[in-house]
Amino acid sequence: MKDYYRFLYRCFRVSFVGDWRYKAWMLLLSCIALFGLNAYAQQLVDGLAVTGMTDQVSWGLYIANFTFLVGMAAAAVMLVIPVYIYGNKDLHDLVIFGELLAVAAITMCLMFVTVDLGRPDRFLHLFQRFNFPGSMLAWDVIVLNGYLLLNVHICGYLIYCAYQGRRPTKKFYIPFVFLAIVWAVSIHTVTAFLYVGLGGRPFWNSAIIAPRFLASAFAAGPAFLIIALRVIGTQTSYKVPRGAIETLRKIVTVALAVNMFLLICEVFTEFYTDSAHGASAHYLFLGLHGYSGLVPWIWTAIALNTFALAVLFIGPLARSAGWQNLACLAMIVGIWIEKGMGLIVPAFIPTPLGEIVEYVPTRAETMVCLGIWAAGLLLFTIFVRVTIPVLSGRLTVDQRYNFVSSSSPTK
Amino acid sequence: MSESNNNPIEAPELDRRSFLRGGLSVAAGMGAFVAALKPLADMDPNDIPSLDGFLQKHYKEMDEEDMEAALKRIADKVQARWDVVPNVRDVRPEEGVEFVYALNLSRCVGCRKCVHACVDENNQSRSPEIQYIRVLEMPRGTLDPEKGNHDYDRPKVPSDDHFYMPVQCHQCENPPCVKVCPVEATWTEPDGITVVDYDWCIGCRYCEAACPYWARRFNFTEPEIPKEELNTDMAYLSNRPRPKGVMEKCTFCLHRTREGKNPACLEVCPVGARKFGNVLDPQSEVAQILRTKRVFVLKEEQGTLPRFFYYFDERYPDKAAAPALGAESEESR
């Protein structure tokens, strides 16, 4: 036990060590996170009136980001499946990075849900009267926290074993790895069902939402990992196996293509039928009765995703690291828009009584979102910062680690 | 592990320079953190729950003593804020009663008196104004609420080319809002009224997203009610002042109706378009309306089974035809 505390303490120490770029990056993230905290403190005092949400559009950026990040978290399985089911060696060591991303993403999800609550001081009520299995939100609380625990356990165990220099005992983590595969699908499915189950919102009340969620998650998540691994590969001493990014690229390509296909299915159903149920889709893609706040957003998203797909399909471009990074960045932004401004907000416009009230996020709301993103990235950077020296055997239980002159910083 | 004692982390060399630098960074970090939290200093002390309030149980779990204490807390807060002594009660449902509302579309003139009587009766926030009733001005040729005009503003109502359809909570028998609440802060009472425990709601607004009638409202900020407009006749589950950050909705004025009075929106209606009563009593006006008039519910395809009916003045020609409809609607429940 004492060893374990010492391990935690050393991890804590390592997270403060790095060259000036690392420190500048961490300082920047800390500052943004503090600005976010400041905006949230203001929200606690004045209520959610500081946001752009109304009784008409009662969920906005917070829930949009939450939904997107559930997808990022679920994407860890796209690394786990090739390794543990198909025996892919290249990805083996990288699984941990996927799971660390999952931990950071779920933590951000929980923060986004918390800031969306009108009465966060009453969260204990969840433990006292829990509407399970009736409410999909109750399911979501279970699957999200369960997924967090699973991933904390798997990463924590593997990293601590590497730190102690012993081989991990299979029975302590393999069953959890397989459980986490199923669980990852469940977190995104349950989150989709949260919306799908509402009969009063025809835009959501469609069976295709859950598959679309998964497809877009399996594109955006690995896309983020490609970029993160490139940064790790070039900025640290850690050797990212050559084949790893290639495998991820294939996954991303297929997932993005499926995502685009499902989008076409949805657009066709809404517009060819042309029933009154398509009002929200009309508002989103074309504008409705002169209101068109989301139209530029969704077409930007479609353009970004189409661009990314084109790059990934054109062989020479797809193999160039620069183009690949660009495509990944484009699809992350594209899918973020698609899930936020494109999926959460339009379901509220028009209201069930046909009223059209548009939604524009306020400065305070945006600051809180940026703050949570910064906090999440901060967490992920620390995880990676600590993991790399452990995995590469430079930080182990009986080895000295020179914190002062460690010359291979993360970022 | 003696060697680790030489390790820079275990025994960092505390020379003056690095000590000062480390200390300064920690101080700067703490300072920035405290500065970020500065807005909390402006928090209204009334917003911070007292320990008793924090530990208060769910409505259904409170015994008589708990309820008495809870009602006293409410009364104290009202007194502290508005300097009046309210009459706060916990009004329970009666046996053998199921409330139903019927609204006569042939009569409603769209004057919106019900909207404002409701706000006055139920202590809704005046700024920003929260209204439970939304009156739609409907064009000819449709019953679809999505075609209605929410913002009609005429010097004189009714307009010859329109009819008027007020929408409020339909007190559904199969309420989507109750199903989705993660903490059971909203439920349907035995007399058919869906209520919210304002002291239990966590403010996630999932119910607001779930309602197909757009009948729920959220307190985005501290509700504001002028002292002279405060209705001091209050009940725990209906019109007591709400805190910020929780949901609220129409309760069929249960503090009135459970004691034999009519809802405020009905009482104020100048044309008698609103009818209210116990559907389980066959002699009640609403039971007769459901038997004999041409009745419909909004968004029937949602399967919500509303207890709020719309009807037209026209009767079915003979009584023989009528019971079939009544029987059918009872059966379909």
What do these coordinates show?
The complex is a heterodimer of chains A (411) and B (333). Chain A has 411 residues and is mostly helical. Helices cover 70% and strands 0% of the residues of chain A. Chain A has a single domain, classed as Formate dehydrogenase/DMSO reductase domain (Formate dehydrogenase/DMSO reductase fold), CATH 1.20.1630.10. Mean pLDDT of chain A is 90; it is low at 405-411. Chain B has two domains: 3-41; 99-331, 2-Layer Sandwich (Alpha-Beta Plaits). Chain B is built from ten helices and twelve strands. In chain B, a hairpin with a 5-residue loop joins β5 (186-188) and β6. Mean pLDDT of chain B is 89; it is low at 1-12 and 324-333.
Q: Classify the beta-strand content of chain B into a percent band.
A: 15-25%
Into which percentage range does the β-strand content of chain A fall?
A: under 5%
- pLDDT averaged over residues of chain B: 89
Q: How many alpha or pi helices of chain B? A: 10
CATH superfamily membership of chain A, which one?
Answer: Formate dehydrogenase/DMSO reductase domain
Biggest interface, which chains?
Answer: A-B, 67 and 71 residues
Q: What is the CATH domain class of chain A?
A: Mainly Alpha
Give the tally of β-strands of chain B: 12
> What structural class results from the helix and strand content of chain B?
alpha+beta
Q: What is the CA-atom radius of gyration of chain A, in angstroms? A: 22 Å
Q: What's the total helix number of chain A?
A: 15
CATH class value of the largest domain in chain B: Alpha Beta
pLDDT below 50 for ≥5 consecutive residues: which ranges of chain B? 1-12, 324-333
- What's the number of structural domains of chain A? 1
Overall shape of chain A: globular
Q: State the end-to-end distance of chain B.
A: 75 Å
Distance between the termini of chain A: 32 Å
How would you describe the shape of chain B? elongated
